[in-house]
From TrEMBL:
Residues 8-190 form the Type IV methyl-directed restriction enzyme EcoKMcrB subunit DNA-binding domain. This is HNH endonuclease. It comes from Pedobacter jeongneungensis. Signal peptide: none annotated. Residues 243-294 form the HNH nuclease domain. It comes from the Bacteria.
Length: 340
C-alpha cells in the first residue's frame, strides 16, 4: 500500500507530461490501487472502490475513493473517504469529503459555500480524534495555470482529514490503521444519517399531512400508512405473508414498504395494500434506495453496484414468486423510476 502512494507521488508529474491513454500510472490509480485498498478492508463488499487520474486528460489532483453503497455509488454526490493527492505531489490527504459535481451542477453560484456548510454540519455528527484527524482546511496546492475548478471544490468539501508528506510517508501499518479508523467514523456517520434522515423525512411528511385540509380520519390513515402502521400495514400483511427474499415471516421484524415511493404516490396509492411489500430491514434499504427491484414474475433485479453486498448478506437471487396485477403496476413504476 505504501509503495502505491510513493509511486504516484514520485511519478505522476512526469507521467502527466506525456500521453494519457493506457499509461501505467493512470492504470494504477484506476485499478491496482483501489484493488489493493479493497484487499485490506474488512466487509469490503459493502463498498465501491474507485480511482481516477482523469478522464481523457490528466487530472490536477488524482484520487482513490471508498463509497458506501447505502450513501452513493458515484463520487459526484454523497460523502465518502478519499485519498486526494496535491497537484504538486508534495503529499496527499486521507479526507472524509463530499461529492462536489452534483452540487455544482444544481446550485452553480455559491456552491462552495454550500459545500462548506454541509461539511460543518456533517462534522458535528461525528466523533473523531482531533489529534489524528484535522478539521482545518486542506490545501491541494492548485497551480496558477490550472484551469480545473476541482481542487478548490475538493478543498471546500473537506470534513476531516489527515495529511501525509512525500518526505515522510508512514509505514503500511500506520496507513492501514488510519484508514480503518476513518472507515469506522464513516460507518457511524452513515448509520446516524440514515436514522436522522428517515426520522426527519417522516416528521416533515406527518406535519404536511396534519397541516392539510383532509378530514381527521383521512389524516390519521395517511399518517399510519407513512409510518407503516394501521390499515395500510394490515392490508399489506393480508397480501404478503413474508419477506420474499429472506423468507422471514414474523411480521414484528418486517417493514411494510411502499413499492411506488410515498413521495410519488397520491392519497389512494399511499393507502393501497397492493402498493406494499413486507421486507426485512436490510432488504427494505436496498429496495427503497433502488438497488434492487422485481420483475412481474418474481425475478430479483440487482444493480451491479449492489451485487457484492447482496452476496455478502447471504441473500438469494432465486425467483420470489409472481405478483398480482395491481402489484405489477406499482413494480413497473419502481423499475422505471430506478432505471432497471
Amino acid at each position: 500500500m505504501r509503495s502505491f502512494f510513493i509511486n504516484v507521488l514520485e511519478h505522476y508529474i512526469p507521467a502527466s507530461q506525456g500521453n494519457f491513454t493506457d499509461h501505467p500510472i493512470a492504470d494504477l490509480l484506476r485499478n491496482s490501487f483501489p484493488k489493493s485498498i479493497k484487499d485490506i478492508i474488512e466487509e469490503s463488499d459493502k463498498y465501491i472502490f474507485k480511482g481516477s487520474a482523469g478522464q481523457s486528460r490528466w487530472a490536477a489532483c488524482p484520487w482513490v475513493a471508498i463509497l458506501d453503497v447505502l450513501v452513493t455509488t458515484s463520487t459526484q454526490d454523497g460523502y465518502y473517504p478519499v485519498y486526494i493527492f496535491r497537484e504538486d505531489m508534495t503529499g496527499f490527504y486521507l479526507t472524509l469529503n463530499q461529492g462536489v459535481t452534483s452540487v455544482g451542477q444544481e446550485i452553480k453560484k455559491g456552491y462552495r459555500s454550500i459545500l462548506k456548510k454541509r461539511a460543518n454540519s456533517l462534522r458535528m455528527q461525528i466523533n473523531y480524534d482531533a489529534q489524528l484527524f484535522s478539521s482545518e482546511n486542506i490545501n491541494l496546492r492548485k497551480g496558477k495555470n490550472t484551469k480545473s475548478h476541482l481542487p478548490r471544490d475538493y478543498e471546500a468539501g473537506n470534513i476531516i482529514s489527515k495529511f501525509y508528506s512525500l518526505a515522510n510517508v508512514p509505514p503500511k501499518d500506520e496507513l492501514v490503521s488510519d484508514l480503518k479508523l476513518m472507515l469506522s467514523i464513516y460507518s457511524e456517520l452513515v448509520a446516524a444519517k440514515n436514522l436522522t434522515s428517515v426520522a426527519q423525512e417522516e416528521k416533515d411528511e406527518v406535519q404536511e399531512i396534519n397541516n392539510s385540509e383532509r378530514t381527521p380520519t383521512q389524516k390519521q390513515r395517511l399518517i399510519d400508512a407513512r409510518l407503516g402502521q394501521g390499515k395500510f400495514r394490515r392490508d399489506v400483511v393480508s397480501i404478503e405473508k413474508n419477506c420474499r427474499i429472506t423468507g422471514t415471516s414474523d411480521i414484528a421484524f418486517l417493514i411494510a414498504s411502499h413499492i411506488k415511493p410515498w413521495s410519488k404516490s397520491n392519497d389512494t396509492e399511499k393507502l393501497d395494500g397492493n402498493n406494499g411489500l413486507l421486507l426485512s430491514p436490510h432488504v427494505d434499504k436496498l429496495f427503497d434506495k433502488g438497488f434492487i427491484s422485481f420483475s412481474d414474475n418474481g425475478e430479483v433485479l440487482i444493480k451491479d453496484e449492489a451485487k457484492d453486498i447482496f452476496k455478502s448478506w447471504n441473500l438469494q437471487e432465486t425467483n420470489v414468486g409472481s405478483f398480482n396485477k395491481k402489484q405489477q403496476e406499482y413494480l413497473a413504476y419502481h423499475r422505471n423510476q430506478y432505471q432497471f
